Amino acid sequence: MHERLENSILLWDVPVIQKRPDQTNNWQKHSSWGNIGMFLLFWVVFSTIVPSQVHALPNDLHLHFLFNGRDLNDPTRDLQLANTRQAEFRSLAMEYGFALTEPLLSPAETLGVSGFDLGVAISLADIPENTPHWRKAVEDERPDNYLMVTRIRLRKGLPFSFEVEGSIGFINNSTSVLAGFALKWALNEGLLYFPDIGFRLSVNRLFSSRDIDVVTASMDFWVSKQFSVLGMFTVTPYAGYSLVFVRASSQVLDPTPLSFGDNEDGSTGSSNFVFKPIPNASSIGGSFGSRASFGARIVWFFTSLTMEGSVIVPHSPESGVASVAGPATVGAFNMKLSFFF
């Protein structure tokens, strides 16, 4: 009797013992794929962020190049020169801010309370490089036809369908760095026959720029719907609208940095100057733009690839000065590779 009982216990335990190595092997397979994925992720980050030549920084803005002279003998002419200078700064700052605004790059749904998402995003913003204010603002007068920003983005799910996001970004061929924060709330998510609806507030700040200080903020509203494909991966298309706000100011600028005799004396017509901040009392409404975004996310196991196109249209495209082009529409292509767990 005892032998039968012992044999039955052994027979009962054998399948359990045999399953554990398989479970361990499966875990090791997933872990090895995860290690490969994280290696590829960081390889993309460093190969994109680290410039091949440290001294080549053509995308740094130099606002003192916007100086177009002074005429102390003719106050009317001097005022016209100052207005032209200010209009060029506004157009440049608005287009620069639009290019640096944080993209959506995610569906409207949230990650859930225990969800994390870590990824690398690349944005290519089409700037009007042939306009005079862009040609003046870069040292070699040959700006790139697009502005490339690489971001490391971390998302964390919270209770009650909330989500927080932090990011740090690097502008290609520039010493400037971006930092961003966003708070997202899904008004509706997870229903079978209805799309997910999301709302987000985000803010971005430009750091380590010598001449210009830029802060962008956006209020985003978008919808998305997830579809399963062949039971192997999911595709989630989304579309959204954003109200974008740009705030920009300049440091004290020296139009003749190689000359030290005119730093204090304005009688030479080359004294230091500062641009009026944007927005100011006369141009509050001119600091806004409307963005339309369309994209899709593809999820396979723990890896997701998101691609998005967006267009930001300024609310006030006129500069107020006939000889200066106003803020232009800025389009962008954004892509993100991320791992969630």
- Describe the biggest sheet? 10 strands, antiparallel, barrel
Q: How far apart are the termini?
A: 50 Å
Tally of discrete structural domains: 1
Give the strand order, joined by hyphens, for the main sheet: 1-2-3-4-5-6-8-9-10-11
Radius of gyration: 27 Å
Describe the overall structure:
The protein is an alpha+beta fold and 341 residues long. It has one domain (51-340). The protein has three helices and eleven strands. It has helices at residues 2-49, 75-100, 132-137; strands spanning 116-126, 146-158, 162-171, 177-188, 196-207, 212-224, 227-229, 233-250, 288-300, 303-314, 330-340. Strands 1-2-3-4-5-6-8-9-10-11 form a ten-stranded antiparallel β-barrel. A hairpin with a 4-residue loop joins strand 5 (196-207) and strand 6 (212-224). It is elongated and about 75 Å long. Mean pLDDT is 82; it is low at 1-31, 43-56 and 265-269.
